[in-house]
Write a structure and sequence with these properties.
With 219 residues, this protein is an alpha+beta fold. It has a single domain (2-211), classed as 3-Layer(aba) Sandwich (Aminopeptidase). It has 4 helices and 12 strands; from the N terminus they run E-H-E-E-E-E-H-E-H-E-E-E-H-E-E-E. It has helices spanning 12-20, 59-67, 82-91, 158-172; strands at residues 2-6, 24-26, 29-33, 35-38, 41-51, 72-77, 118-125, 128-137, 141-149, 177-184, 199-203, 208-211. Strand 11 and strand 12 form a beta hairpin. The longest helix has 15 residues, at 158-172. The chain is globular and about 50 Å long.
């Protein structure tokens, strides 16, 4: 199944509904796909979310938080500015395939409210921007859109840090779920999303989210 549509404005309740049915979006382009092409083969797409009531930190994630205790993490309405454009250009050098051209491949030109409310989570070392992630805000859930970080700081685990901070923020705000995007039914670049306790995947046959076998280090 592959469905696509353009939605210019979407209410928080409608965003929750779309996410619960396996839909994602970049800007105003919404899509729902059961399969994808990866490493020369067709793979099954598994939309993911974290049940925030069941989330617990793993030993590895606790170390990531401790390693980055010197950073200042700030939440604000989503925007694209010169600092984040520069960070994006550095971040995309990590990729060899399907390299994006611009942040607007993922965001609208009014990312704070089109097609829905969106925020960003940014990590700073002093005044230096090291990482930013963007996420949408629904009525009972939030949903990750895109994350980027300075590749020179890869040992910090900034991608994991951003998700952990989004989890903390969403729980503090009373949300039920954090949608983290998707992975595949085979090993892939996206497997880091499998490492969060409380993660569920969307089963296309039953149209429901089911518990995922989380890959993580032991306690």
């Amino acid at each position: 199944m592959d469905e696509f549509r353009e939605i210019l404005r979407c209410s928080p309740t409608k965003m929750d509904l779309l996410w619960s049915m396996g839909w994602r979006h970049f800007g105003t382009y919404f899509f729902c796909s059961t399969t994808a092409w990866s490493n020369g083969r067709t793979v099954r797409v598994l939309p993911l979310r974290i049940d925030l009531a069941r989330f617990e930190l793993s030993r590895s994630q606790k170390r990531t938080l401790k390693r980055n205790a010197d950073l200042n993490v700030v939440f604000a309405p989503a925007l694209v500015d010169d600092a984040r454009e520069r960070l994006f250009q550095r971040h995309k050098t990590r990729f060899r395939d399907n390299v994006p051209d611009t942040l607007y491949d993922f965001l609208s030109f009014q990312p704070d409210h089109v097609p829905c409310q969106a925020k960003m989570c940014s990590a700073y070392l002093g005044e230096r921007l090291l990482a930013t992630s963007y996420f949408d805000v629904g009525a009972e859930a939030v949903s990750a859109v895109y994350a980027m970080f300075d590749p020179d700081e890869h040992r910090r685990g900034l991608g994991i840090l951003l998700i952990l901070k989004e989890v903390e923020h969403a729980r503090n705000q009373g949300y039920r779920y954090l949608y983290t995007g998707y992975c595949y039914d085979r090993p892939s670049f996206y497997d880091y999303k499998r490492r969060f306790r409380g993660t569920e995947y969307f089963d296309w046959e039953t149209k429901t989210f089911l518990p995922l076998d989380v890959k993580e280090e032991s306690r």
